[in-house]
Amino acid sequence: MNLRQLELFTEVAETGIVSHAAKKLYMSQPAVSQTIADLEDLLGLKLFDRLKHKMQLTFAGEILYQYSKKILSLVDEAESQMLDMANLKMGRLRLGASTTIGIYLLPHLLGEFKQKYETIQSTCVIDNTSVIEEMLLTNQLDIGFVEGLVHSAEIVIQKVMDDEIWLICSPQHRWAREGRLVIDPVEIAGEALILREQGSGTREVVEKKLKEHNVCYEVWHVLNNTEAIKRAVAADIGIAFISQMAVKDEIESGRLVNIKLNGLPISREFKLIWHKDKYRSPLLNAFIHFVIGNAE
């Protein structure tokens, strides 16, 4: 059976007259009659009794009519849902974000986006850049928002904005006590440097920049949480490189100190990434344009 046969069958069952059904369906009467006959042959059952020029359902016809109405109703419901998705009245967005973006930027953006598209469902995975990249490659996410380096040629990259990475220390650190807010990069050598875990976008960018400028450094502590790193620095356990977005409040309040590296500013790009073969639905396009528009 196919949907067209069920539509014709249902119309004949409800009108009881083939000519009326044919007129409503913009078909010829013989074409409708032939479709009903073909359906009966296919099922090996009579669906109608032809009595006094009226089509009356047999018992088999009554059973099929009940199922046919359910099937056609589900088709209408599916079409309605697809139309709502096309018009951005409903949908689902599976987001992934690297840690800094996921904690300090995405909640604000997602909140504004959902004010515009209230019925949109979303899920969000927050992890380091390498994990988000892998989840895109295995179609576990629709789109990612990351700050780290992306390595796969299968991933499309769209720059959104720049982010500065600041070197921070405790107010008790000798640099802060001596008022030395600008230092030469070589002075990092011998300091207790705190970095994020391997796979972190922040760590990858910082280490790449330091190596490019032949800056010696030693990793004393590895923490996979930005808040934990800030607390460790505030306790004067070591120094760290952190997104200015994540540490701005602490710098302004004096709980932490921003130390500039002479001739060595460090910045990275915040990027939207998705699989090159991923279908960009109206919802996905709307989110991409929204994020880019808000960053400009």
Can you give a write-up of this model?
The protein starts with a helix and ends with a helix. The model has no long low-confidence stretch (mean pLDDT 89). The protein has twelve helices and twelve strands. The relative contact order is 0.13. The chain is α/β, with parallel strands linked by helices and 296 residues long. The chain is 47% helix and 24% strand. It folds into two domains: 84 residues, Winged helix-like DNA-binding domain superfamily/Winged helix DNA-binding domain (Arc Repressor Mutant, subunit A, Orthogonal Bundle), CATH 1.10.10; 200 residues, D-Maltodextrin-Binding Protein, domain 2 (3-Layer(aba) Sandwich), CATH 3.40.190.290. Strands 3, 4, 5, 6, 7, 8, 9, 10, 11 and 12 form a ten-stranded mixed β-sheet that branches. A two-stranded antiparallel ribbon has the order 1-2.
Q: Which structural class do you get from the secondary structure elements?
A: alpha/beta
The profile of the biggest β sheet is: 10 strands, mixed
Q: What ranges have pLDDT less than 50 throughout 5 or more consecutive residues? A: none
Number of domains: 2
Q: How would you state the average pLDDT, rounded?
A: 89
How many strands appear in the DSSP assignment? Answer: 12
N-to-C terminal Cα separation, in Å? Answer: 54 Å
At CATH level 3, the topology of the largest domain is: D-Maltodextrin-Binding Protein, domain 2
Radius of gyration: 32 Å
Number of distinct helices? 12
Helix content, binned percent = 40-55%
Q: What order do the helices and strands follow?
A: HHHEEHEHHEHEEHEEHEHEHEEH
Named CATH architecture of the largest domain: 3-Layer(aba) Sandwich
Kindly provide the name of the CATH class of the largest domain. Alpha Beta
Strand proportion: 15-25%
Identify the overall geometry. rod-shaped
